[in-house]
User: Fold this.
Amino acid sequence: MKNYLFFILSLIALSITTYSCKDNSKVEQERQIKIKEYNDSIFAFVQKNWNFKIPRTSPELAQELENWKMWQEFKQEIELKPVSTIGAFQKKAEKLSSSVLSLTFQSYPNKLNQPDIKARVTVLLTSLNNLEMFIKLDPIPMDKVDIYLKEVQTNLKVLIMQMEENLAKTKIPKEIGEQEMLEAMDETRRANPEE
Assistant:
């Protein structure tokens, strides 16, 4: 009788274990389907909204930018849109961040070598770094990615506007004595008085 009772209890335990394993695998399959649907929706969203465009520039600025090799590399990189997977967008975000980072440490053309332009490039770099960070999370927060996709495009526009403004300011003739006043306020000259 003891063996019979042990056999029945073993059979019941085995059937419960088998049933719960089937139930767990069903739950896991449903979970995987939901994750795949979410990832597909993320990919569709990113593919639709990844539209970085460098605004049109004046002929004078276009000439300055044409001679700036690092800018040309960045421009070429930003205009190529990934198409295959979310992983391609993640790699592109990383590439864009490193491209702008290298842009910040290279020499700027003389007319564009201004602190406000360098600050705008740094702001663009920050936006691209944030985009890269959020697009690499798992699961990807769609709202944050949307914010930084828009912010990168806005910062591109603002950077070009700042470049245009600085070039326009160089055309304004200086008044009598203005150059001497600017030299007196020059911080680099104060730090190096012999130069």
